[in-house]
Structure prediction request, 141 residues.
Amino acid sequence: MRADDLSFSEAVNLGILKSVKDGLINSVGIMPNMVYAEHGYSLIKDENIALGQHTNICAGKPLTDPKLIPSLVREDGSFCTSKEIRERQEDTIDVKECEIETEAQLKRFIEITGRMPDYFEGHAVFSENFFYNIKKCCKKA
Prediction:
């Protein structure tokens, strides 16, 4: 079983660690842009699990300059929420902007872990443009 959202908060990190230690989880997705990313990784780095990039474009702040990714952010520079994205009448996520942020998250993943992710997937956004971007990033990696 997989646990997503490592790095969402300290509490989530500790819950995922417990699930891994208890043998319930053998695959963990880390959100590289979140404040608790390094903390989460430090907890599970020595565990025998698959570690993936849980690409996040709807929680917290981007790693990219918000001016470069306007389709993904609010005026204050934080990501639009998944609810805000869902309420749009059409898929307004710009593929190139999404690619810029996904690659920034991959770079951060590597900085934190020292390696490539075992897999890529996305956090809470159902967008054909987002899915296309994740597939494209997988092929490049």
